[in-house]
C-alpha cells in the first residue's frame, strides 16, 4: 500500500511538472546536454530536427571524455553545475538511476514506448517510469575473414553455434606442440578476448537466461536459474564458450598466450571476430587490406531466443534540472523520428525506432546492423567495470581448473547479487 501510494504521488507530481511548460513567447529556455559524441556530430543531429533555430529552446551541448564522464558528472551535480540532460548508456542505467528524473507512465505511456522503440530498449523502463529515451543501438555482430574461409573451401559463415566445432577443425592450425598459428574463433579465455563479457552474455541470453530481472523496485540476479532443467542455461552456455580454450578438445582454438583477439583478427590470423557494429570503421582504418565481411551473431538451432547482445544509448533528464518540462520536450524531439534518424546517419549505427528499421539500407554492412538491431537485447548491468571482473574471474577459475563450471556460475551469481544490492532502493 505504501509503495502504491508513492507511485501515485510520483505520477501526479510528474504530470504537474511535465505539463507546466507550455512554451514561452519570451526568451528561449536554455537546456544543457552532456554527451560523449563530438560536438560537430551533435550539431548535425540538432540541425535535422525542429530544435534548429528554435525560438523556444537554446541547446548547449558539452562533449565529455568517456573515461572521465562519471566523475565529472557526479562532481558537477554536487556543485550545482550539472546538465539538464545527459547521454545514458544502457550499462550505466542502474549506476546513475538515483540521479535521473523518471518520466511517469501517465506522461509517456508504456504503450507509447513499446510502439515507438525496439524491444531491447525496454531496459530503460523502470518501475517508477522511463529513465531514458533511446537514440541509437550498437549490436554485437560477427566479423569473418573471407580469405581464410575461401582457403578452407567454406562459402558461408556459420549460422548456428553447433557449426563452430567443425569450423575449428577446418580453420585452426596448430604445430606439433599445440601452439596455435591460426585460429577459427577466439573463445575460451577472457583477458585477451575483446568483448568477452558481451559474447558470454549473448550465449547465456540465447540459452534463455536474462541474467538479471526487476524484482519490485530493485533488480535481482537470476544467473544461476535452472528454469526447471537439469543444467543451468548459464552453465551450458559457459561450457560451450570455454571448450574452445581446452587443449584436450578437438575444437581447441585459443589460449591466453595469444595477442588480443581484435589484433589477431586485424593481422589476418583469426577466422571469426565478435565485435560491435561501431568497430567497423576502425577495423577498416587499421587494416584496409583485410578481406572481411559481417554477419549476424549465430543462434541455437530451433531456439526461440533470438538475441544479439547490444549496447544502447539514451537521453535522460537529471533530477537536478530546473527546467524538467523543457528537458522533456527536448529529449522527445531528439528521440523522435528525425532525431534518431540523424543520430543513425551521423554515427553509422542502427536506429532504435521501429518505424526507421522498417526501411533497410542498401549498404551491405548496415543491412546486417539493422537486422541485428531488431533482435538486440542487453541486461540490467549494475556496474560495468565490476561485473566485468565477476565474469573474468568466473571464466579463469574454470580454464585454470580451480572450479567446475556449475560452481563458477553459482559463485558469479552470488557476486552479482552482492553487486546489485549496492544499487538497491529501500522499499
Provide an overview of this structure.
This protein is of the alpha/beta class. The protein folds into two domains: 2-137 and 311-377, D-Maltodextrin-Binding Protein, domain 2 (3-Layer(aba) Sandwich); 139-309 and 380-421, 3-Layer(aba) Sandwich (D-Maltodextrin-Binding Protein, domain 2), CATH 3.40.190. Helices cover 38% and strands 18% of the residues. The protein contains 16 helices and 14 strands. The chain has helices at 2-19, 39-47, 69-78, 110-116, 146-151, 163-171, 196-206, 233-243, 261-266, 280-286, 324-334, 337-347, 354-357, 364-374, 384-399, 405-421; strands spanning 29-35, 57-63, 85-89, 125-126, 129-130, 133-145, 173-174, 180-185, 212-215, 218-221, 270-276, 292-295, 308-317, 376-377. Strands 1, 2, 3, 6, 7, 8, 11, 12, 13 and 14 form a ten-stranded mixed beta sheet that branches. A hairpin with a 2-residue loop joins strand 4 (125-126) and strand 5. Helix 2 (39-47) runs antiparallel to helix 12 (337-347), helix 7 (196-206) crosses helix 8 and helix 15 (384-399) packs antiparallel against helix 16 (405-421). The radius of gyration is 23 Å and the shape is globular. The N and C termini lie close together (11 Å).
Amino acid at each position: 500500500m505504501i509503495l502504491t501510494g508513492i507511485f501515485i504521488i510520483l505520477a501526479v507530481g510528474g504530470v504537474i511538472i511535465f505539463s507546466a511548460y507550455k512554451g514561452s513567447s519570451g526568451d528561449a529556455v536554455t537546456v544543457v546536454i552532456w554527451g560523449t559524441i563530438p560536438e560537430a556530430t551533435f550539431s548535425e543531429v540538432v540541425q535535422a530536427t525542429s530544435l534548429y533555430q528554435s525560438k523556444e529552446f537554446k541547446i548547449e551541448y558539452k562533449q565529455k571524455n568517456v573515461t572521465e564522464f562519471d566523475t565529472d558528472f557526479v562532481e558537477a551535480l554536487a556543485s550545482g553545475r550539472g546538465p539538464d540532460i545527459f547521454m545514458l548508456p544502457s550499462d550505466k542505467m542502474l549506476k546513475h538511476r538515483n540521479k535521473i528524473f523518471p518520466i511517469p507512465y501517465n506522461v509517456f505511456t508504456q504503450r507509447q514506448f513499446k510502439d515507438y522503440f525496439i524491444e531491447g530498449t525496454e531496459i530503460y523502463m523502470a518501475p517508477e517510469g522511463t529513465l531514458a529515451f533511446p537514440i541509437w543501438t550498437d549490436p554485437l555482430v560477427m566479423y569473418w575473414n573471407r580469405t581464410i574461409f575461401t582457403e578452407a573451401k567454406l562459402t558461408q559463415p556459420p549460422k548456428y553455434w553447433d557449426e563452430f566445432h567443425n569450423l575449428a577443425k577446418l580453420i585452426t592450425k596448430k604445430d606439433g606442440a599445440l601452439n596455435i598459428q591460426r585460429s577459427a574463433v577466439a573463445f575460451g579465455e577472457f583477458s585477451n578476448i575483446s568483448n568477452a563479457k558481451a559474447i558470454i552474455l549473448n550465449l547465456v541470453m540465447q540459452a534463455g537466461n536474462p541474467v538479471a530481472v526487476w524484482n519490485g523496485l530493485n533488480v535481482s540476479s537470476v544467473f544461476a536459474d535452472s528454469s526447471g532443467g537439469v543444467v543451468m542455461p548459464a552453465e551450458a552456455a559457459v561450457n560451450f564458450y570455454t571448450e574452445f580454450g581446452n587443449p584436450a578438445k578437438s575444437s581447441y582454438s585459443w589460449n591466453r598466450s595469444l595477442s588480443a583477439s581484435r589484433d589477431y583478427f586485424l593481422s589476418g590470423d583469426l577466422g571469426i571476430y565478435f565485435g560491435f557494429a561501431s568497430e567497423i570503421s576502425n577495423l577498416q582504418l587499421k587494416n584496409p587490406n583485410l578481406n572481411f565481411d559481417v554477419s549476424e551473431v549465430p543462434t541455437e538451432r530451433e531456439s526461440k531466443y533470438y538475441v544479439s547482445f547490444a549496447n544502447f544509448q539514451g537521453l535522460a533528464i537529471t533530477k537536478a534540472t530546473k527546467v524538467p518540462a523543457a528537458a522533456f520536450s527536448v529529449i522527445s524531439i531528439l528521440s523522435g523520428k528525425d532525431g534518431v534518424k540523424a543520430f543513425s546517419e551521423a554515427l553509422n549505427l542502427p536506429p532504435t525506432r521501429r518505424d526507421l528499421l522498417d526501411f533497410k539500407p542498401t549498404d551491405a554492412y548496415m543491412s546486417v546492423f539493422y537486422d541485428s538491431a531488431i533482435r538486440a537485447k542487453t541486461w540490467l548491468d549494475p556496474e560495468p567495470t565490476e561485473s566485468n571482473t565477476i565474469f573474468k574471474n568466473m571464466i579463469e577459475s574454470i580454464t585454470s581448473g580451480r572450479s567446475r563450471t556449475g560452481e563458477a556460475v553459482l559463485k558469479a551469481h552470488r557476486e552479482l547479487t552482492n553487486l546489485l544490492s549496492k544499487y538497491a532502493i529501500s522499499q
